[in-house]
């Protein structure tokens, strides 16, 4: 990529986040990624304790694909978060990618997504999440497009690390909620449900999360919705689940 090309992309990204509130930054960068790349959707997920937490998406379908992977516990985006390396699944309808993630590939194709490109936010030792790009047709990204996607991921990583995230950052007006409050609450619901399943069945956290995901999939729910059912005591898993 030429210096002029990098400058153009940097200008688009800078313009996208100009005057944005902290909570708007991820969504704006997702929208910019869709403008800059041959993709139909983009999403950002944070990564914590084995569970991706969807943060923002450019469309309802991109959000659906993020929730799908969180529920299945499988997919290109989870692999990128686990390894800290980019994963380019260029054809979910046939070949290696379709075999590698068979359930996800089938559901993604049914939703109209044929390719997924997942880039870690940060490296292997400090991956905080992923930038997830979705495409309606199979195909690889060209060299310049890969570099553009990586530049978007780098800017997004820097932006997330710079944003005020918590209660005690001292940067919020009095009485204003932290912008990640609702997200953290959702994340806590899943972990609380995992703890309840551990206590009910006498199993470890990894198996409890797998049981929660399996039951959610069987019921046609997301893992977050299933967590709410368990925490609300409307659903109880047993040894048969």
Please explain how this structure is put together:
- The structure is a single chain.
- The longest helix has 21 residues, at 181-201.
- With 241 residues, the protein is of the alpha+beta class.
- It folds into 2 domains: 3-162, 2-Layer Sandwich (Beta-Lactamase); 181-231, Arc Repressor Mutant, subunit A (Orthogonal Bundle), CATH 1.10.10.
- Mean pLDDT is 82; it is low at 166-179.
- It is globular, with a radius of gyration of 18 Å.
- The protein has a 5-stranded antiparallel sheet with strand order 2-1-5-4-3, sandwiched between helices.
- The chain has 10 helices and 5 strands, in the order ααββααβααββαααα.
- It has helices at residues 3-17, 25-36, 60-72, 76-83, 95-100, 102-110, 143-162, 181-201, 205-219, 223-231, and strands at 41-48, 51-57, 87-89, 115-121, 129-135.
